[in-house]
Specification:
341 residues; mainly alpha; two-stranded antiparallel sheet; 12 helices; globular
């Protein structure tokens, strides 16, 4: 019997069923969010299988076991002669064996993580990787960080063949015009946005504007990227205090901003937004009146508690009693009935 076609499965899903459609695909800066989501899901998966150290490796933090220090004699000199305390020598042998075990385990886990990442590439990405000598060199070294950097570049459009200077303009334009989805947390938007920054700088050079004032090049870069990130966030999720304009407009307004509060790095801008009081996605709601009291003799005070009056006024038959909200106090609003007939 002929096997059923597997094109769709290979094109849109990876080797790990539980990760579903979280795969690396060839794309452009408009699809940069896919790289971030896929890497986040893979980081959780790898961490569950091989521990925190391999999860940190997925985040770009290299780790290799550290060999234990050699034992020393009574004068503090590292040696293997008989002057070393036998207990210290045995402890060193134990620690060294543990180090060798961790080293073998680290190498083994790196090679498995490398394979897992390759397995989460869509068909188009996997086919393209096979043509790159750079990927072959990374595979020899089981270079997980290098592979992720390559995938980041390809996911952001690095495989598209077009005029280089036009590609640079498109990358910069997309970087500066990308806006936050109001339904997503600010940390997720930052990861997507900063991934685009890293790809641009790795391809075209560091984003360092002309020196302004006494700022160094690194300080100028940090302030420029902080402004770029602030202008990319959702105005709905992070409204200005006046309700008009963006957070960046508010910070740059000399009549509204406090001195020296403008973030100087993109990380500082992220922290500033995370610490803002209103991050609910809309301006703080106006106070809503409480439910009208069922008894017309009940009134409301500013503390928010209802109090029953000692003598409840009777409601004339020719009046209707409704309740209005005025300055935090529920008041009776008479409405005269029209004469019948």
């Amino acid at each position: 019997m002929t096997e059923p076609p597997t094109t769709n499965r290979n094109a849109f899903k990876g080797a790990i069923a539980e990760l579903g459609s979280h795969v690396y695909t060839l794309g452009n800066l408009r699809q940069a969010d896919r790289y971030v989501k896929t890497t986040e899901m893979l980081t959780l998966y790898v961490g569950r299988l091989y521990g925190k150290k391999m999860a940190n490796l997925m985040k770009g933090k290299e780790w290799t076991p550290t060999p234990p220090p050699k034992p020393t004699d009574s004068e503090g000199v590292q040696t293997r002669n008989t002057l070393v305390d036998p207990f210290d020598l045995e402890a060193y042998k134990h620690d060294y064996q543990q180090y060798k075990k961790e080293l073998r385990e680290c190498d083994d886990h790196k090679s498995k993580v490398f394979i897992i990442i390759r397995g989460q590439c869509a068909l188009s990405m996997a086919t393209h990787l096979e043509t790159l000598s750079e990927c072959t060199a990374l595979e020899v070294q089981d270079d997980v960080i290098g592979l992720l950097a390559l995938l980041k570049k390809l996911t952001h459009g690095g495989a598209t063949v077009r005029y280089e200077y036009l590609a640079m303009v498109e990358s910069l334009r997309t970087l500066l015009t990308t806006t936050q989805d109001p339904t997503k947390p600010i940390s997720s938007h930052y990861n997507t946005w900063y991934a685009a920054v890293e790809v641009f700088e790795a391809t075209y050079g560091t984003l360092k504007p002309k020196q302004i004032g006494n700022d160094t090049e690194d300080e100028a870069r940090g302030k420029f990227l902080a402004c770029a990130f602030l202008t990319s966030v959702s105005k709905k999720k992070f409204p200005s205090s006046s309700g008009r304009g963006s957070v960046a407009d508010e910070l740059s307004n000399p009549h509204l901003a406090k001195p020296n509060v403008f973030p100087t790095t993109p990380e500082g801008a992220l922290n500033y937004l995370s610490n803002r009081a209103n991050t609910t996605g809309a301006p703080a709601p106006s106070p809503r009146p409480p439910n009208p009291p069922s008894n017309p003799g009940t009134t409301h005070n500013p503390s928010g508690n209802f109090h029953q009056s000692t003598t409840a006024p009777s409601t004339p038959p020719d009046r209707q009693i409704t309740y209005g909200w005025h300055g935090g106090i529920v008041t009776e609003l008479p409405q005269h009935r029209r004469p019948s007939g």
